[in-house]
């Protein structure tokens, strides 16, 4: 089972590394201890909304973008872990090739379709 705090930590770490920033830089700007930020990035601690906002501010990234990336990753993990739905009628099944790419899913989250297709 995928934990939200792990996905959140992965996204925050990826953003920080992509910017070429150190834990020390971001922790100083976010006014959080280096150790705590490290634990958040490793998915060992759950960050409060205030702390997340502070970290996102230090990274110069909107909190909504971080949450969107986490949501997309969570959706992908759910799709990959979905049990076989043998007792659900065929017309009600959401297949990876069709369901994710149709209707509201592709309109709101087109990147999820791309992740599944990869």
UniProtKB/TrEMBL annotation:
Matches recorded under InterPro entries: Cro/C1-type_HTH, Lambda_DNA-bd_dom_sf
Listed transmembrane segments: none
One annotated GO molecular function: DNA binding
Classification via Pfam families: HTH_31
Annotated HTH cro/C1-type domain residues: 12-66
Protein name in UniProt: Transcriptional regulator
Source organism of this protein record: Spongiactinospora gelatinilytica
